[in-house]
From TrEMBL:
Pfam family, one: FixS
Organism placement in taxonomy: Bacteria, Pseudomonadati, Pseudomonadota, Betaproteobacteria, Burkholderiales
InterPro entries tied to this protein: Cyt_oxidase_maturation_cbb3
Superkingdom, taxonomy of origin: Bacteria
Name the record gives this protein: Cbb3-type cytochrome oxidase assembly protein CcoS
Listed transmembrane segments: 6-27
Keywords attached to this entry: Membrane, Transmembrane, Transmembrane helix
């Protein structure tokens, strides 16, 4: 039962870290032109 006092805060911290990384990626423009990158793979040089 004592392990829950360690695992619950760690899992909440990990969830906040993942949300912060996702927020950073969205606001820094990582997902601005997703369709273009998919089409770029299919184009021939």
């Amino acid at each position: 039962m004592d392990i829950l006092f360690l695992l619950i805060p760690l899992s909440v911290g990990l969830a906040f870290f993942i949300l912060a990384a996702l927020g950073w990626a969205i606001y820094s423009g990582q997902f601005d032109d997703v369709e273009r990158e998919g089409e770029r793979i299919l184009e021939q040089d």
